[in-house]
Specification:
Helices cover 14% and strands 31% of the residues. It is of the alpha+beta class. The longest helix has 19 residues. The chain is globular, with a radius of gyration of 16 Å.
Amino acid sequence: MILLISGSGTWWAIHDSRSDNGITASPKKVCDQRISGDKAVPLLPNKGTKWQEDTYNFNTWKSIGHCIIKDGEETIHVTYEDVLGERPIQKKGIPVSLGHAYGYLSARGGIDLYLSCKSIPRAVSSRVLIGTGASIVQDKLEAGSKLDESTSGLAALASFTAQVVRELTQDWFKCPGADQLPDGPVTIHWDKPAVP
C-alpha cells in the first residue's frame, strides 16, 4: 500500500452510521463524493459512531492523493498515484488482478493495482496506481493471523477495491479501456507464488 506522508485535511462527519433500525447505513458517496459507500460498510464496525473522512487531493486531481474513512477506531485507506516516468512497478506480495489491471496483495493486507491510463488529468505518465487497505484486515495480521483466503475482511476489501478502481478510472480519470473492467471483486491469485 502506498504510504503518504504529506497532506492535510479536516476530519468531518459525513453520515450518522445508524439508521432508525440500528443497522449501519452506508453514505451514498465517500472520498469527496468520488466513491460509492456501499462496499465500505462491511469494512467498518457497527458502533453507532459517525463516519468521518480525511481527504487529500480527492476534490481535484494531483499526482498523488489519499482518502481515509473512519468509524470509531476502524479505518479504510484509499490512495492514488500517477506513476511518474518509467519508475518500475513495485513487485512484492501475492499477485492480484481486475481484468487488465494488475498488482499485489501485501503481507500487511493492502491491495495495490496498476492500470494503464494515458488520459489522466494532468497526464504525466501512462499508468495510475490505486491502493486500498482496511484496519480490520491489518489488525488481524498484526495479531499473528496468517494471510490466506480465510483472512477476515479480505473478501470485503477485494470487493471495495474493485469498486474504487472502476469508479476512479471510469468516472474521474477517464482511463481508456476502464469501461472494460469486469464486475465483481479483485481476484487474488493464491495459486501463484508470492513475490518476495
